[in-house]
Write a structure and sequence with these properties.
The complex is a heterodimer. By secondary structure, chain A is of the alpha/beta class. Chain A folds into 2 domains: 5-305, TIM Barrel (Alpha-Beta Barrel); 307-336. In chain A, 41% of the residues lie in helices and 16% in strands. In chain A, the strands form 3 sheets. Chain A has an 8-stranded parallel beta barrel with strand order 3-4-5-6-7-8-11-12, surrounded by 9 helices. The longest helix of chain A has 18 residues, at 146-163. Chain A is globular and about 80 Å long. Chain B folds into 6 domains: 5-210 and 223-253, Thiamin diphosphate (ThDP)-binding fold, Pyr/PP domains (Rossmann fold); 259-400, Rossmann fold (3-Layer(aba) Sandwich); 425-621, Pyruvate-ferredoxin oxidoreductase, PFOR, domain III (Pyruvate-ferredoxin Oxidoreductase, domain 3, 3-Layer(aba) Sandwich), CATH 3.40.920; 672-816, Alpha-Beta Plaits (2-Layer Sandwich); 901-966, no CATH class; 1005-1180, Rossmann fold. The longest helix of chain B has 27 residues, at 1154-1180. In chain B, helix 3 (64-76) packs parallel to helix 4 and helix 41 runs antiparallel to helix 42 (1154-1180). Chain B contains 42 helices and 35 strands. By secondary structure, chain B is of the alpha/beta class. Chain B is globular. In chain B, the strands form 6 sheets. Chain B has a 9-stranded mixed β-sheet with strand order 1-8-17-18-16-19-20-21-22. An 8-stranded mixed β-sheet of chain B has the order 29-28-30-31-33-32-34-35, with helices on both faces. Classes of the chains: A alpha/beta, B alpha/beta. At the A-B interface, helix 2 of A face helix 2, helix 15, helix 21 and helix 41 of B.
Chain lengths: 336, 1191
C-alpha cells in the first residue's frame, strides 16, 4: 500500500501533517511528531503583530524611567544580544530541520506586506522546506471594499513568493463572496497550495466582569463539513495542492478529506488531546480503511468523491440545501 | 596610527582598567559609583577577559562593609581584587582599609568622591568622603577628568603592586564619574606592558596558603604594637618615587605625561592655586586665559595626595611664587584649616625651618572651600581667588561659589568673567526625563565624537523628582580637549523640548548673542510666538536669537514613536546647528539608531528612521518680530498665599535659583517644615481622573490606591456646600446611617501624575458604556481652572471626625486626611500607597525612621517634601539617618518613647496633688486603643498642660516638656528591601528580636530601586537585575518566615492590589500589637519593567501565582489558643509563568538566554510550590513556626 502523497511539491511519506500549534514549539516536540509517523510538520506560527509588539514592549519597558533621575539612569543591565525578532523561531526551525527527516514547513501569520516578509526568506535559510502563510485578517473598516481586501491578500502572497524559492501554501478563511474565485487568485499570485481553512478566534462576553474574553476552542469533527465541501469543489477545477485542516479527530475525517480531494490532512486538536503518539493511530486507521475498501494508494483516493467525481455534483451546491430542508421537515415537522 | 578613542564617562573609563587588571571585584551599589560595578558585572557576564585571559569574578555583597571585607579576604588569599564605592559606602570600608594598609596589601579602591550625609544627604560630588580616609594608610591618587580617570586607574594599579601600599583612586562624583568625554583608550597591550607579572606573583606569594602556612591579624600588646606600626615607614617613603617612575613609564608607553603635582601657567607666576579633582580643569582653563593676558598666575594640580611628597610639591612650584591659595573640596568644622591647606602649610613650614624653601620669601598661604556637593566651580570663581591673593590682606578660610552672609567667608565673583572658547560649540537642551532627551544627546556626542576629530563633552543635570522630572543637558564640541568642568555659561544652541518649561525656568538665560533656539511647540508658528512669555520674546530679540520651531509630538505620533521625541529633536539639532553637514549628520543618526535599537528589533529601528525623515519637513525657521508683544508673564513658582519660607527659599529652589540663596536662608541643623509639596503645583500630567458620581459605588478604592494622594474623600452636611464654587460635585452618601450627608470625591488635578491606577482600581462600570468607570482619565486643560477652584474649596471643608470612623473599613479610612501627599515618586508608584495609608491611620501621632532609598528621596528631597500636617498642626515627624542603620535608628525612637513616657508617668504621679488624682489615674490608665480613646487622652493631656503651665514647681516644668508623650505614639521604621534584606538586615533582626514596640514597613520592590535596579536578596529566582544580568539563581529570602521564627513578632505579608482589605487589617493590627511588627508590602516598581498602569494587576498576579502569598502572623492569636498564622490568599490558581512573563525583568531573559530562562522558570515554580506547601502546613497544624511568647 502506497501512503505517499505530493503536497505543495513536497514528497510526503503519508498525508498526515501536524499543523501549526504548540507541539511544534520545541525541537523535542517536532521529533516526537516524526517518531509518531506524521508526513510533515508545520511549525507554530510566527505572528507579525506579536513580533512587533514584543519588540516595542521590550523597548518601552527597558527605556521607561531611564535618564530621568540621577541615581537610577537605567533599571536593567545592558544586554547585547536580545532575541526579539524571529531568531528563537529560526533557531528551533534550524535545529529541528537538522534532526528530522520529514519536511518542516514554516508558518507565517501576518497581514501586511511590509518587512516581516523577510522572515520567510530567513525560514528558508534556516531549513524550512515550505512556507505556510496564514492570512488571518478581519477587515472591520466599512470603507474597505472586498476588492481591496482581496488585493491586499494577493499582494502579500506575491511578496512572499518573491522572497523565497521554496513552495508557499496559503491558509485562507472561508469568508469570501466568491471562495472559488479567491482560490484562483491565490493560485495566480503564485501560491503552491491552499490550506482550508483557518479558524478565527471568536470573542465571547464575560457577563460578570462585563468584559470581552477571547476564547479558543479546539475544533471538533462536526466542523469538517465546510472545508470538505470546498475541497470537493476546488479539486479538479484548480491545479493546485490542497490541504484540509479543522476537525480531524479520528481517521474517519482523514479519509473523508482525502476522498474530497485533499493532498494532505492537518490536525492539531487531536494530537493535543491525545498526545503526539496519536498520529500513529490516525495513520493506522487510514490504512485499515484503505485495506477494507481496497484502495492501494493515496493517489487513488484523492478526490475520489470530489464534486467532479461524485454521481450527484449538486450535492455540494444549493440543491443540496433544499434537500436537507425537506428531509428536516419530513423527519421532525411532519411527524405527529 | 589613528588613536583608539571612545566616548565614555569617568565610571566606564575607570571600570575599563579595573576590570582588565583584576581577578576579583567585590561590590555594592552606591551613587555615583554604581555604574563601575555594573559595567564590571556586565562585562564578566559577557565573558570579557582581563589582561591575563581570564574573566574576573564579580560578586555583590550586602553592604560596603561586606564588600571591603570580601576584598580583604580575597587579597589575603592572593587574588588581585578591587572595589568601587563612594560617600557613606567608603566610610563603611574604613575599618578594612586600615587592615588592608596595615598588612601592606596591594589593591586599588576606585572612588567617585561624594558628599557625606551631615545636615542632609547629597549624592553629589566633593572630597569629604575621601578625605575622611586620610588616616587609613591608603595612598591617594586623584583624577581630574575622564581621560585621567582611565590613566590614573592604571597608574594606581601598577604603583600599588610595586609599593605594596594600597591605593585609593578617586575622581569627582557626577562631574567626572558621569561626564561623557571623548577619551583615548589604552590598548590592551599597553595595559599589559604597564603591569609587571613578577609583582603579581609576589602578591600571590604573600597569600595565605596551607601549603606554607602563616598567621596574620594577631593581637599585640603595649610592648610591640607601636613598633609594629612603624615598620611600614620605608614603604610609604618609596611611594612618591614609585608613582613618579610609573607615571614616566606610562608616558613612554601610552604617550600621556603626568607628574605627582602638575604645574601650569606663567613660568614666573606669583599667585598659584593648589587644587585637585575636576576643579583643577576649570582652574587650568582660567589660568590659561589669564596667563595669556600676561597675568602671573598658575595652578598646581595635585595627583598624588597621599603620601604628600614635600619634595615634589616644592619642586613643582615656580620659584617666583609669592602667594598660594589651597582649595579644599570639603569641610572640617572646627579644624585649623582644611586638610590640603594644612598639608601645604606643613610642607612650607618644615622647608622654612630647614632652610630649604625654594622661594625668595615664605609665600603667603590662604585656604578656601569650594564645590561642596557638586556646587559649580567656574573660571569666575578661580579669578575671584586670584584677585583675593593679590590683596594685601587676603581673606583666609574663605569660601567661593556661595554667598555666606552669616560667617562672611565668601569671595565675590564676577559672573561676566567667562572663558568659554569661541572654537567650542556649546549647546543646552531642556527636556523631560521621559522624552528621551538625555539619551539622544548621548547619542549625539557619540556620533560627533566617533565620526569627527572634535573633542566632546556631555554633562547632564537631573532634578530630584522621579515623575515628570526635568533634565538639562550641557554639551560641548571643540577641536581641543575640553577643560570646562562646569555647566555651559554661554550657549550657542539651546533646545527646549517642552513648551511649558518656558513658564517655569529661564531657558534663554545662558543664550549667547546670535544663538540658535529650537523649541518644541504644539502650536502654529503664529500662536507659538504669541504664547511665549514676554521675557522670552525680549531675550530672543535682544540677543538676535535664531528661532526654530517644530511640533515634535505631532511627528512622534505620526511615526509610531508615541511620546518619545528624542530622535526628532536630535535630528533638528543636526539640521540647524551646523556641527556636521546636514546630510552626513542624518546618515549618522540613522547609523546610530541602528546601533542603539537594532537589538530591540527591526520595527523599533524603522519607526525611528521614519521619525528622522518626517522631522525636516516639520521644522520651521521663525520670523522674529521687532518687538515683544506677549501678554504672558512668567508666573511665580509658588502661589502668593504660600508661607514666606516656601516663597523665599523653596520657591527659589523650584525655579532654579537655589544657587543664589545665601547661607542665612538655610536652616542651621537641617530642620525643615513639613507639608511643602502642596505649594509646588507641578502640573505634569496632561490627563487626570474625573469622577462620575452617578456610576460611583463609594467604595474608596480609587483614593486608596492613589500613589500621590490626589484623590480625596470627605462627607459633609449639605449646608457646608452653600459656598461651593460652580461645578463642584457631590452626591448623596450611600449607607444606612447616611442621612442627608453629601459624599465628595475631589481630585487634586495639578498634583496628579496621570498614572491612572485609580481607574484600574475602580470596580464600578458605567451601565451604558462598560469601558467607562466611576472615575475616568480625561484631558486636564479644559477642566483645570474649575478643578483648581474645587480643590481649594474642598480643602476648606471640615475633615471627617476620626473618632466616628471605622478603622477597619476601607471606605471609612479614605475619609482620613492623608498626611503624605504629592510626593515626587514615579507615576503609579507601588510604595507610596502604603506609606500614605500609614499616614492616614497613624499620621497625627506618628514618628518615622526612613532608610535611605526611594522612600527617603521622594519623602525628603528638596525643594518640597510630602510629609504633611493636619489642621491641628499634627502630622508625622520624619527623619532619615542612613541606609544601613535605619532599624536601629527607629529603635532609638522607641527607647525615647518608652523612657519619656515612663518619666512623664513618674512626674505625673509626683504632681498628682497639684493636677488632680482623677486626671492622673485617667491619664495613666488610658488604653488609647481606639481613635475615640486617643482623642480623650489628648483632651486630658491638654488639661494637664494647662494646669502645669500655671505651676511653679520644677517637676511641673519638667513634665510640661514631656506631657505630649502621654498620648500614644506610633513608631514606624520604613525602607526598601535593599535595606531590610541586605545592608540593614543585621540591625533589623536585632530590633525585631528586642521585643520592643516598633512597627517596621518593608516596601519590597525586590530590587534596589533607587540606585537603578541592582539585585537584592529579595530578588526572586529568574529575575534579571543589575549584578544578576543572567537571571538570579537563588530564591528570594523569606524575611517574614525568619521574623516569625522569633514567635513574638507580628508579621504580615501584603499586596494592596491583591487584597486591599487584608492590607488595611495588617496595618491596624501591626500598630495595635504590643510588640515588634513587620509588614512586608509588595511594591510594584518601574524597575520591574512593567507599564505602571498595570501595577495593581501585577500585584494580583503575584498573589494568584503563589509568588507572594498573603498572610498575617499574630502571636496574640496563639495566646488565645489559635494558630497565629493565617493564610490570607488562596492556593495558587495560575502558573508562575502567567505572572512573571508579564514583567520585563523576567521576560528579558527569555530573549537573551532562553535555555536559562526555562530552567529558572522551572526552579522558580518549584520554589513557589514548595513554599506554599510549607505555609499551608504551618497554617493548618497549629502554626508551630516557633515557640510563641506573645506580647
Amino acid at each position: 500500500m502506497n501512503l505517499t502523497t505530493k503536497y505543495m511539491g513536497l514528497e510526503l511519506r503519508n498525508p498526515l501533517i501536524a499543523s501549526a500549534g504548540p507541539l511544534s514549539e520545541t525541537v523535542d516536540g517536532i521529533k516526537k511528531l516524526e517518531t509518531a509517523g506524521v508526513g510533515a510538520v508545520v511549525m507554530f506560527s510566527l505572528f507579525e503583530e506579536q513580533l512587533q509588539q514584543e519588540a516595542n514592549t521590550l523597548d518601552a519597558s527597558l527605556e521607561a524611567g531611564t535618564e530621568s533621575f540621577a541615581e537610577s539612569l537605567s533599571y536593567f543591565p545592558h544586554a547585547d544580544d536580545f532575541k526579539v525578532g524571529p531568531e528563537q523561531y529560526l533557531e528551533i526551525l534550524h535545529a529541528a530541520s537538522q534532526q528530522v527527516q520529514i519536511p518542516i514547513i514554516g508558518s507565517l501569520n501576518g497581514i501586511s506586506s511590509k518587512g516581516w516578509i523577510e522572515y520567510a526568506r530567513k525560514m528558508q535559510e534556516a531549513g524550512a522546506k515550505g512556507i505556510e502563510l496564514n492570512l488571518y485578517y478581519i477587515p472591520t473598516d466599512p470603507k474597505m471594499s472586498a476588492t481591496a481586501v482581496e488585493k491586499q491578500k494577493v499582494a502579500v502572497v506575491q511578496a512572499v513568493k518573491a522572497a523565497v524559492t521554496i513552495p508557499v501554501a496559503v491558509k485562507l478563511s472561508p469568508f469570501f463572496t466568491s471562495m472559488a474565485s479567491m482560490a484562483r487568485k491565490m493560485k495566480r499570485a503564485g501560491a503552491d497550495a491552499l490550506v482550508l481553512f483557518n479558524r478565527f478566534y471568536q470573542p465571547d462576553f464575560d457577563l460578570d466582569e462585563l468584559t470581552v474574553s477571547p476564547t479558543l476552542h479546539l475544533s471538533t469533527a462536526e466542523e469538517i463539513r465546510l472545508p470538505l465541501r470546498w475541497l470537493a469543489i476546488l479539486r479538479g477545477q484548480l491545479r493546485i495542492s490542497l490541504a484540509a485542516t479543522t476537525g480531524v479527530q479520528t481517521s474517519t475525517e482523514v479519509v473523508k478529506y482525502l476522498l474530497a480531494g485533499a493532498d494532505a490532512v492537518m490536525t492539531t486538536s487531536a494530537l493535543l488531546h491525545n498526545g503526539p503518539g496519536y498520529a500513529t493511530q490516525l495513520i493506522a486507521g487510514l490504512q485499515q480503511w484503505m485495506e477494507e475498501h481496497e484502495y492501494r494508494s493515496i493517489k487513488q483516493m484523492k478526490g475520489a468523491m470530489s464534486q467532479k467525481s461524485v454521481a450527484d455534483p449538486t450535492a455540494f451546491e444549493r440543491a443540496n440545501y433544499i434537500k436537507i430542508l425537506e428531509k428536516y421537515k419530513s423527519e421532525y415537522t411532519l411527524k405527529p | 596610527m589613528k588613536k583608539l578613542t571612545g566616548i565614555m564617562d569617568g565610571n566606564e573609563a575607570t571600570a575599563y582598567i579595573a576590570h582588565k587588571t583584576n581577578e576579583v571585584c567585590a561590590i555594592y551599589p552606591i551613587t555615583p559609583s554604581s555604574p563601575m560595578g555594573e559595567f564590571s558585572d556586565e562585562w564578566s557576564a559577557g565573558n570579557k577577559k582581563n589582561i591575563w585571559g581570564t574573566i574576573p569574578l564579580v560578586a555583590e555583597l550586602q553592604s560596603e562593609g561586606g564588600a571591603s571585607g570580601a576584598v580583604h579576604g580575597a587579597l589575603q588569599t592572593g587574588a588581585l581584587t578591587t572595589t568601587f564605592t563612594a560617600s557613606q559606602g567608603l566610610l563603611l570600608m574604613i575599618p578594612n582599609m586600615y587592615k588592608i594598609a596595615g598588612e601592606l596589601t596591594a589593591t586599588v579602591f576606585h572612588v567617585t568622591a561624594r558628599s557625606l550625609a551631615c545636615q542632609a544627604l547629597s549624592i553629589f560630588g566633593d572630597h569629604s568622603d575621601v578625605l575622611a580616609c586620610r588616616a587609613t594608610g591608603f595612598a591617594f591618587l586623584c583624577s581630574a577628568s575622564v581621560q585621567e580617570a582611565m590613566d590614573m586607574a592604571l597608574i594606581a594599579q601598577a604603583a600599588t603592586l610595586e609599593s605594596r601600599v594600597p591605593f585609593l583612586h578617586f575622581f569627582d562624583g557626577f562631574r567626572t564619574s558621569h561626564e561623557v568625554q571623548k577619551v583615548n583608550l589604552i590598548p590592551e597591550d599597553q595595559i599589559r606592558a604597564m603591569i609587571n607579572d613578577e609583582l603579581v606573583f609576589a602578591h600571590r606569594a604573600r597569600a595565605l596558603n596551607p601549603e606554607k602556612p602563616v598567621l596574620r591579624g594577631t593581637a599585640q600588646n603595649p610592648d610591640v604594637y607601636f613598633q609594629g606600626r612603624e615598620t611600614v615607614n620605608p614603604f610609604y617613603d618609596q611611594v612618591p618615587g614609585i608613582v613618579e617612575k610609573v607615571m614616566a613609564q606610562f608616558g613612554k608607553i601610552v604617550g600621556r605625561h603626568y607628574k605627582l603635582f602638575d604645574y601650569s601657567g606663567a613660568p614666573d607666576a606669583e599667585r598659584v592655586i593648589v587644587v585637585m579633582g575636576s576643579g583643577a580643569e576649570a582652574a587650568l582653563e582660567a589660568v590659561n586665559f589669564l596667563a595669556a593676558k600676561g597675568e602671573k598666575v598658575g595652578v598646581l594640580r595635585v595627583h598624588l595626595y597621599r603620601p604628600f611628597s614635600a619634595k615634589h610639591f616644592l619642586t613643582a612650584l615656580p620659584k617666583s611664587v609669592k602667594a598660594l591659595a589651597v582649595l579644599d573640596r570639603t569641610k572640617e568644622p572646627g579644624c585649623a584649616g582644611e586638610p590640603m591647606y594644612q598639608d601645604v602649610l606643613t610642607v612650607l613650614g618644615e622647608a622654612q625651618q630647614g632652610d630649604a624653601l625654594p622661594f625668595a620669601k615664605m609665600p603667603r598661604v590662604i585656604g578656601g572651600r569650594y564645590g561642596l556637593s557638586s556646587k559649580e566651580f567656574t573660571p569666575a570663581m578661580v579669578k575671584a581667588v586670584f584677585d583675593e591673593l593679590a590683596k594685601p590682606q587676603p581673606k583666609n578660610h574663605f569660601t567661593v561659589g556661595i554667598n555666606d552672609d552669616v560667617g562672611h567667608t565668601s569671595l565675590t565673583c564676577d559672573p561676566k568673567f567667562i572663558t568659554e572658547s569661541p572654537k567650542v560649540t556649546r549647546a543646552m537642551f531642556f527636556g523631560l526625563g521621559a522624552d528621551g532627551t538625555v539619551g539622544a544627546n548621548k547619542n549625539t556626542i557619540k556620533i560627533i565624537g566617533d565620526e569627527t576629530d572634535l573633542y566632546t563633552q556631555g554633562y547632564f543635570v537631573y532634578d530630584s523628582k522621579k515623575s515628570g522630572s526635568r533634565t538639562v543637558s550641557h554639551l560641548r564640541f571643540g577641536p581641543e580637549p575640553i577643560l570646562s568642568t562646569y555647566l555651559v555659561q554661554a550657549a550657542n544652541f539651546i533646545g527646549c523640548h517642552q513648551f511649558n518649561f518656558l513658564e517655569k525656568t529661564d531657558v534663554l538665560k545662558y543664550a549667547a548673542e546670535g544663538a540658535v533656539f529650537l523649541l518644541n511647540s504644539p502650536y502654529s508658528q503664529q500662536e507659538t510666538w504669541e504664547r511665549l512669555p514676554r521675557s522670552v520674546q525680549q531675550q530672543i530679540i535682544d540677543r538676535k536669537v535664531k528661532f526654530y520651531v517644530i511640533d515634535a509630538y505631532k511627528v512622534a505620533a505620526a511615526t509610531g514613536m508615541g511620546t518619545r521625541i528624542n530622535t526628532i529633536m536630535q535630528t533638528c539639532f543636526f539640521a540647524i546647528s551646523g556641527v556636521l553637514p546636514k546630510d552626513e549628520a542624518i546618515e549618522k543618526i540613522k547609523g546610530a539608531i541602528k546601533k542603539t535599537y537594532g537589538k530591540k528589533g527591526e520595527d523599533v529601528v524603522k519607526k525611528n528612521f521614519e521619525a528622522v525623515d518626517q522631522t525636516l519637513a516639520n521644522l520651521h525657521a521663525m520670523k522674529v518680530p521687532a518687538t515683544a508683544t506677549s501678554k504672558v508673564e512668567m508666573p511665580p513658582p509658588v502661589p502668593a498665599e504660600a508661607p514666606d519660607y516656601v516663597k523665599n527659599v523653596l520657591g527659589k529652589i523650584m525655579s532654579d535659583q537655589g544657587d543664589e540663596l545665601p547661607v542665612s536662608a538655610m536652616p542651621v541643623d537641617g530642620t525643615f517644615p513639613t507639608g511643602t509639596t502642596q505649594w509646588e503645583k507641578r502640573n505634569i500630567s496632561l490627563s487626570v481622573p474625573v469622577w462620575d458620581p452617578k456610576t460611583c459605588i463609594q467604595c474608596g478604592n480609587c483614593a486608596y490606591v492613589c500613589p500621590h494622594a490626589c484623590i480625596r474623600m470627605k462627607t459633609v452636611s449639605p449646608t457646608a456646600l452653600a459656598q461651593a464654587p460652580q461645578g463642584f460635585v457631590s452626591t448623596q452618601l450611600k449607607g444606612k446611617d447616611a442621612g442627608d450627608k453629601r459624599y465628595i470625591l475631589q481630585v487634586a488635578v495639578e498634583d496628579c501624575t496621570g498614572c491612572a491606577l485609580c481607574v484600574q482600581a475602580c470596580p464600578a462600570k458605567n451601565k451604558e458604556q462598560v469601558s467607562r468607570r466611576a472615575i475616568n482619565m480625561e484631558d486636564k486643560d479644559p477642566i483645570l481652572a474649575r478643578e483648581r477652584a474645587n480643590f481649594s474649596f474642598f480643602q476648606t471643608l471640615p475633615e471627617n471626625d476620626r473618632t466616628t470612623l471605622d478603622m477597619t473599613s476601607l471606605r471609612d479610612v479614605q475619609f482620613l486626611q492623608p498626611l503624605f501627599e504629592f510626593s515626587g515618586a514615579c507615576g503609579g508608584c507601588g510604595e507610596t500607597p502604603y506609606v500614605k495609608l500609614a499616614s492616614q491611620l497613624f499620621g497625627d501621632r506618628m514618628i518615622v525612621a526612613n532608610a535611605t532609598g526611594c522612600s527617603s528621596i521622594y519623602g525628603g528631597n528638596l525643594p518640597t517634601t510630602p510629609w504633611a500636617k493636619n489642621k491641628e498642626g499634627r502630622g508625622p515627624a520624619w527623619s532619615n539617618s542612613l541606609f544601613e542603620d535605619n532599624a536601629e535608628f527607629g529603635f532609638g525612637y522607641s527607647l525615647t518613647v518608652e523612657k519619656h513616657r515612663e518619666l512623664a508617668g513618674e512626674l505625673l504621679k509626683t504632681l498628682a496633688a497639684d493636677v488632680g488624682e482623677t486626671l492622673v489615674s485617667e491619664i495613666l490608665g488610658a488604653k488609647q486603643a481606639t481613635e475615640a480613646e486617643i482623642a480623650q487622652q489628648r483632651q486630658r493631656v491638654a488639661t494637664l498642660k494647662g494646669k502645669l503651665a500655671t505651676s511653679k514647681k520644677p517637676e511641673a516644668r519638667n513634665l510640661l516638656t514631656l506631657a505630649d508623650m502621654l498620648v500614644k505614639r506610633s513608631v514606624w521604621i520604613m525602607g526598601g528591601d535593599g535595606w531590610a534584606y541586605d545592608i540593614g538586615y543585621g540591625g533589623l533582626d536585632h530590633v525585631l528580636a528586642s521585643g520592643r514596640k516598633v512597627n517596621v514597613l518593608v516596601l519590597d520592590t525586590e530590587v534596589y530601586s533607587n540606585t537603578g535596579g541592582q539585585m537584592s536578596k529579595s530578588t526572586p529566582i529568574g529575575a534579571v537585575a543589575k549584578f544578576a544580568a543572567g537571571g538570579k539563581r537563588m530564591g528570594k529570602k523569606d524575611l517574614g518566615m525568619i521574623a516569625m521564627s522569633y514567635g513574638n513578632v507580628y508579621v504580615a505579608k501584603i499586596a494592596m492590589g491583591a487584597s486591599p482589605r487584608q492590607t488595611l487589617r495588617a496595618f491596624v493590627e501591626a500598630d495595635a500589637y504590643p510588640g515588634p511588627s513587620l509588614i512586608i508590602a509588595y511594591s510594584h516598581c518601574i524597575a520591574h519593567g512593567i507599564d505602571m498602569i498595570n501595577g495593581l494587576r501585577q500585584q494580583k498576579l503575584a498573589v494568584d501565582s503563589g509568588h507572594w502569598p498573603l498572610y498575617r502572623y499574630n502571636p496574640l492569636l496563639a495566646a488565645q489558643g489559635q494558630n497565629p498564622l493565617q493564610l490570607d490568599s488562596k492556593q495558587p490558581s495560575i502558573p508562575l509563568k502567567d505572572y512573571i512573563y508579564t514583567e520585563i525583568r523576567y521576560k528579558m531573559l527569555t530573549h537573551s538566554n532562553p535555555e536559562v530562562a526555562k530552567q529558572l522558570l522551572e526552579d522558580g515554580q518549584k520554589f513557589v510550590n514548595d513554599r506554599w506547601a510549607m505555609y499551608e502546613k504551618l497554617a493548618a497544624n497549629g502554626g508551630a513556626v516557633a515557640p510563641v511568647v506573645a506580647g
